[in-house]
């Protein structure tokens, strides 16, 4: 995954361009199917073991037609995906699993078939790139690039745009810019503007979709994952999820434990903190990343001219945000103010291998703030597109953002009192001067009319799982990952002492790569948790 792709993988965790999705009919013939046993929890929401054919509930019986679909594989709409050998198909799922005869949602899935003979094939590996709201059709090609030949021979790798996203009946609330994850600024007027935008975005989504929004929860997405498993004729599935995909994988494992084969969780969150608390935890992590950058840039002041000491570099960055509050910074055709600038800094600090790009972009922004003409780099231009060009005729980020909000707000609640966020920002500001107003900004879920229909899934099981976690992760922090490790009691944790997010796909670490490939190939977890070398 390129730095630009990783950078655009989230608002919070992900607003992705991981792989533009698409589908067309024709091409590959359908895979051979067997009659699939329907899990009772798919229709009822009950946790626990999968049902046998004789113990199907009435609600589950109504799902038979979804599980017995036969995907018609054909070329993906996106030429790059088609060229990679990835094939795409449509699968239909119920909007509401409690009402299987009601409205439906069309999902697009993708597949890279196992490279080996049938005798070497283990089954399917379903995937999710993160988010919520991450485009998933390109994930198989990204994973295949990191697989050893033996692992590539064993798995059909399956991607999916989750319901409401990309090529899967996408939601579009008409949001014209990103409201959430804007810095709430230094003054009352700025805070009020950000709070109003969050509330307005919630109202726009409700006005267009109403109670339909309640059905975009992670629990329903997990049910979609199981329908895809069944439609592919597989009694069990393996899973690779990164970022939000770790939460989705853990929820799936909790709901459908008998359907899980091998489970990889890369850059996991604490399932108990999923939602607002998790985003607030990113503030200190991003301030630390800025300090790391300052220590890197100070000895290179001759190149970047950001300051000769770490304290001076940090002062330059904090001063840049204050300048943007007084006079927005002109970069190309866009203007970065103190509300939007932290969005850029948030993404630039994701990976320690990108320090030179981070420092170079800061130099460009300082020059622009001083009145010198500045044209954005390719990566910065992508971030500005994500921030400012969100309409249906632009980059499409606004529609992805609607999906992100729909999932988060169907899963969790947030305070609907603007003053609550104002207090949280002021409490965080002394220790988080750059990112405190950003990671505590008013969350549209606070004004979301449709509240979660089901309780949050409590993750508490002993299923085997391999977890990969970076110590300097600024999205799903290492402490967040320890929460998942505790909840998934059968997991083994491989720690990678670097600053990155989405280790296996996005960062070159031979030790972590080996851990994932060995587990997928043999099914054997490490005997103990361990830490990889940096390289």
From TrEMBL:
Gene3D superfamilies: alpha/beta hydrolase. It comes from Streptomyces kanamyceticus. PANTHER family: 2-SUCCINYL-6-HYDROXY-2,4-CYCLOHEXADIENE-1-CARBOXYLATE SYNTHASE, TRIPEPTIDYL AMINOPEPTIDASE. Residues 439-532 form the Peptidase S33 tripeptidyl aminopeptidase-like C-terminal domain. Belongs to the peptidase S33 family. It comes from the Bacteria. Residues 1-26 form the signal peptide. The keyword Aminoacyl-tRNA synthetase does not apply. Keywords: Hydrolase, Signal. SUPFAM superfamilies: alpha/beta-Hydrolases (SSF53474). GO terms for molecular function: hydrolase activity. This is Alpha/beta hydrolase. Residues 129-290 form the AB hydrolase-1 domain.
């Amino acid at each position: 995954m390129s730095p630009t792709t990783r950078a655009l993988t989230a608002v919070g965790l992900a607003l992705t361009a991981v792989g533009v999705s698409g589908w067309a009919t024709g091409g590959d013939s359908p895979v051979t199917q067997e009659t699939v046993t329907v899990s009772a929890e798919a229709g009822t929401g009950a946790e626990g073991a999968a049902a046998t054919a004789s113990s199907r509930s009435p609600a589950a019986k109504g799902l038979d037609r979804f599980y017995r679909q036969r995907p018609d594989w054909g070329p993906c709409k996106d030429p790059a995906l088609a060229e990679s050998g990835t094939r795409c198909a449509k699968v239909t799922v119920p909007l509401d699993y409690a009402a299987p005869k009601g409205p439906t949602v069309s999902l697009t899935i993708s597949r890279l078939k196992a490279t080996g003979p049938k005798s070497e094939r283990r089954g399917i590996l379903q995937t999710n790139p993160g988010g919520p709201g991450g485009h998933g059709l390109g994930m198989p090609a990204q994973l295949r690039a990191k697989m050893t030949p033996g692992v590539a021979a064993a798995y059909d790798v399956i991607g999916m745009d989750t319901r409401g996203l990309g090529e899967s009946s996408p939601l579009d609330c008409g949001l014209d810019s990103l409201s959430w994850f804007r810095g709430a600024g230094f003054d009352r007027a700025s805070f009020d503007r950000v709070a109003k935008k969050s509330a307005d975005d919630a109202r726009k989504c409700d006005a267009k979709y109403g109670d339909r929004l309640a059905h975009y929860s992670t629990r329903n997405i997990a049910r979609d994952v199981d329908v895809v498993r069944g439609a592919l004729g597989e009694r069990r599935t393996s899973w690779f999820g990164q970022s939000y995909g770790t939460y989705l994988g853990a929820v799936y494992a909790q709901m459908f434990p008998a359907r899980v084969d091998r489970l990889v969780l890369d850059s996991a969150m604490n399932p108990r903190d999923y939602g607002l608390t998790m985003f607030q935890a990113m503030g200190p992590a991003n301030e630390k990343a800025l300090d790391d950058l300052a220590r890197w840039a100070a000895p290179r002041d001759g190149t970047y001219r950001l300051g000769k000491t770490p304290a001076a570099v940090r002062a330059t960055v904090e001063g840049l945000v204050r300048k943007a509050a007084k006079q927005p910074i002109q970069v190309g055709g866009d203007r970065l103010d103190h509300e939007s600038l932290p969005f850029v800094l948030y993404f630039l600090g994701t990976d320690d291998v990108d320090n030179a790009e981070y420092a170079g972009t800061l130099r460009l922004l300082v020059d622009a703030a001083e009145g010198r003409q500045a044209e954005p780099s390719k990566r910065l231009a992508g971030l500005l597109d994500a921030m400012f060009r969100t309409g249906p005729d632009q980059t499409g980020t606004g529609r992805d953002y609607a999906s992100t909000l729909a999932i988060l707000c169907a899963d969790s609640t947030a305070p609907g009192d603007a003053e609550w966020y104002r207090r949280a920002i002021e409490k965080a500001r002394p220790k988080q001067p750059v990112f405190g107003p950003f990671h505590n900004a008013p969350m549209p879920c606070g004004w979301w009319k449709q509240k979660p229909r089901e309780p949050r899934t409590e993750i508490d099981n002993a299923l085997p799982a391999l977890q990969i976690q970076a110590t300097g992760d600024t999205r799903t922090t290492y402490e967040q990952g320890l929460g998942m490790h505790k909840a998934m009691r059968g997991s083994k944790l491989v720690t990678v002492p670097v600053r990155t997010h989405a280790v296996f796909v996005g960062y070159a670490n031979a030790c972590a790569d080996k851990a994932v490939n060995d587990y997928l190939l043999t099914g054997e977890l490490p005997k103990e948790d361990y830490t990889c070398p940096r390289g």
